[in-house]
Design brief:
single chain; about 45% helix; mainly alpha; about 220 residues
């Protein structure tokens, strides 16, 4: 039997850039936004599940299902910030464009599909270790050993991340470990240090536009 692949035409609510907009553009007043990879992974996991559950239905059915899956997962992620209005407004804006009434038989079924998809993903991630506090002990104040940032947080940003349950059942996270940096006595240390300085200079002549934009992207939620 031929497999029917989901054929979703993206709507404004479940485009990846809409997730970033909600993360970076609407959480204001000093409220920290969620981790910039964890939150979109949850949203898109719900979208994918809704898409696969509705892949044999009409395109409008699929769009309504994935839009509600995105909505419910976003509301869950931003619940503590009460960021309901932008999320609700995004869903309301696309419902009329989809053209399938939510109170019709197919519309109600699509909404249910989306909500159940979000529920499945959110339950799977509700106890994934991302809420757990992991204390961090700084090493001795010697060259090459990370130290607390003056005036910054008492612990580094998200030291618990290595204990968070991985997405997509990829297995043991230890297989992704990279070798440690060279010690300060290693001849290669100066080479790496000079490379970092050259890249990080305000008027760097070696840093590419892509690297600059990448640094600004990751700076958004970084504490240290």
């Amino acid at each position: 039997m031929k497999t029917v692949e989901p054929r979703i035409k993206l709507t404004n609510l479940h485009r990846s850039d809409q997730t970033s907009l909600l993360v970076n553009g609407t959480v204001i007043g000093g409220i920290q936004s969620p981790p910039s990879s964890w939150a979109p992974a949850i949203v898109h996991g719900a979208i994918y599940l809704a898409a696969t559950k509705s892949k044999t239905q009409s395109l409008a059915y699929q769009q309504l299902a994935v839009s509600h899956a995105a909505h419910n997962s976003l509301v869950w992620i931003f619940h503590g910030t009460r960021n309901y209005n932008p999320t609700n407004a995004a869903l309301k804006a696309v419902i009329s464009k989809i053209g399938l009434a939510s109170n019709s038989t197919d519309g109600a079924a699509a909404v249910k599909t989306g909500r159940e998809a979000a529920k499945t993903v959110l339950l799977a991630r509700s106890d994934d270790g991302n809420n757990d506090f992991v204390d961090y002990t700084f090493g001795p104040p010697t060259p090459g050993v990370y130290q607390v940032t003056p005036g910054g947080a008492p612990v580094p940003d998200v030291p618990h991340s290595r204990f968070v349950k991985l997405f997509a059942a990829v297995g043991d996270v230890s297989k992704f470990e990279v070798p440690p940096p060279p010690s300060t006595s290693d001849p290669k240390y100066e080479q790496y240090l000079l490379e970092v300085k050259a890249q990080g200079e305000r008027n760097s002549t070696v840093r590419t536009k892509f690297n600059t934009e990448t640094a600004y992207f990751w700076r958004e939620s970084s504490i240290t």
